[in-house]
Amino acid sequence: MAHGEHTLDPFGRDPFGRSDTGRGTDRRTARPTGDTASTPRAQGTDSGRAALAAGPTARSALLVEREAECAVLATMLAELGEGLAGRIRITGHPGAGCSALLRHAGQLAEQAGFPVLRAYAAPAETNLPYGVLRQWFPPVEPIGARLWSGVEAGGNGGLLARLRQELRAATRRAPLVLLLDDAQWCDPAGRRLLTALTRLPLPGRLLVVAADNGLPAELPVWENAAAWPAAQGAVAHAHVLPLRPLSTDGVAAMVAEHCGEPAAATVVAALVSATAGSPALLAEALRRATALGMRPTADQASRFAALAADALGDRTARLLDTVPPELAALLQAVAVCDGQLEFDLVCRLAGPLPMAAAQARELLAATGLTTRREPPRPIGAAAGHLLAALPAAARSDLHARAAELGHRVAAPPDAVARLLLGAPPVGAPWAVTALTDRAAHSRAVDRSEEAVRLLSRALREPMGRRRRAELLVELGLTEARTTPGAGDRRLGQVLHTGGADLAPLRLVAADLLVVRGAAELGGAAVLAAANPTTATERAGFDALRQLAAGLPGDAGGRHWDPTGQGCPGDPARSGAAAWLTALDGRDLTRARSLAHAALAEPAGGTTLLAPRIAACQALLLTGDPAAARDGLDAVLLDARRREAAAGVGRALLTRAELELRLGRLDEAARWLGQALREVPLEHWHPALAPAPLALDILLNHWRGQHARAERAAAVRLPAGAEQGVSWAFLLFARGVLCAARDAPAESIECFRECGRRLLARRWTNPALLPWRSLAADALGRLGRRAAAARLALEEQELAERWGVWPARCWSVRQSGSRTIGEEN
Question: Are 419 and 387 in contact (CB under 8 A)?
Fold first, then answer.
């Protein structure tokens, strides 16, 4: 209803016995007005009681979980028909449904036959004296002209007394209901008059119902925001109805009412989070959803949340246009701090406020954009919308001032770090310390994405070369858990740093790249950009380049003689030499000796992970699983200490392979599960991703879980996976599956392609993968006995040269068949 419009008596009489704008007719019925006093009273009492007893009118969806408040309204209106006056204050934050409940009160009153006068306060009228009262009693009508004549002349002329006299006369004819919406925008003069009116005994059968959110229009009168109707006075009945946010059940009920079907739990949870239980926000989001034809199914949860966020953004923009600048600044300070600083510090950040912190806190809650707990925080996506109203430079400055204020008052370091995330570089050492300390805590509690943001922000601060390289390594380790490709790029940056003082960091970065497989597809060229400056660094890079290349011989095909590459006291070179010697399959004693040397405790310094894992793999091929197990346990402990996820995953995977080779299938499954929890399959580098998948296939197949093995074999791997040497292991596993389902031709193709890839790298040792004997089995089943005999003989000769039969390295028996690699 527009401002200034009021509802007349439904029986054709104005509640004050006046005609409509002096014309002598009722606005709706065009019935001549009369002067009968008994009829309205009888109707207002008897018919009103009967109507209220029959039940309320159809309620808006905005009245979900407002049953108790509706009952109070119905009771007060029934008692009004009995002659008892009263007042009701409906209060809640914007969007809580105050206006909806006020409209419901008007509907109940009209249903009971009571005249209703409505008024609406508005921000634009806060400086219009008695603006609300002028809506109830327009100056153009006789009663209004008498009331306002003195006011128009510059004084109130006993306005309160005259108003009470007129109200008493009107309520003799029928009970009267006065409704006021958005009372927080009431002008100061009107608020004082309403306060005085409701503190005195109310004149006659009058019920005053006002709705407000406690947010004032002007700073000078903020302290009076809750004055009406705080005092009980001599009023027959007085109630304050505070409206709380909807519960989860309430949100679900409202969604079901709007959408016509129950909502999925994910949709309800998303809307609870996005709206903080605000009925108005929820109703607007649901209106938009139904306009788009959306259904509240689980897959639509994010879309419902986005619509709610948009509705919140619209409400935030409207509110910022109406509140005083000081309150807007306070809201934006709350959005920046987001609960990280005590509220008195937030107020200091916002600037001078003409009120105490307690009053400011209540005003914030009244906006409906912040929580009521201490310290206040923005609800849902409100923080982003509040800060979006600021220019980018002002936002950054506000974050910087908040962080500096937190540092000066010794706020918790994690709070200072969070505030720094949105600030430009402050150029102070404390900023780097706060960010890195918080990042360490975030990693410890498995919040890697937060740690990445903190470390990335720390790198924007000015710092020395060494400190920057340390943070790059730390960030690379952290990103390995979330975005491994980005982590590889960070480690690559470290390789390009110069100076002898950074040699240990360059080695660590190169080691992590090799462990993850990031150096394999590009071979040694990935590490060639590094320029070692010390003898230790050169030895380490030599070993890592050999492991990345994975060639027992050099590029020209000359057999690599590892004798000079590994020696006691040089663990990295010894580890690389042990692995390449084992792959070559010629000198078991030398391979075992080098592996033990690589795993020996170093005299000092940090040992690399990749050469030690390679040494453990070499021990597997030499038939020494006990030493390999001990070495892997040490590597695993060291990798965990360094928080090197790639190193942990690689060590766990090798341990799973060890157990699988020993035929301990349950143990192998446990270790493989740990490896994939530490590094999910999608986070493995494409060069290495086939390895855990191959183990999973073999493990499930030999445990009799053939369907799971087939599903694993069908998993699609990322681009580049076929180029790595680990693809040969996947081909071997697929060949085993093909042989088991009686597809010898397919299995031969898998085994032969596996062999071609291994031989291209000169990996000839049959203890690595007994592809020849299994291919010979398949050839024999196809009747190609000569080819089968040649492959079987070749494997026998290579095994004799190496000194360990594949059967000792692969003791798993396929269901009812002989041991893998058993001599033909």
Answer: no
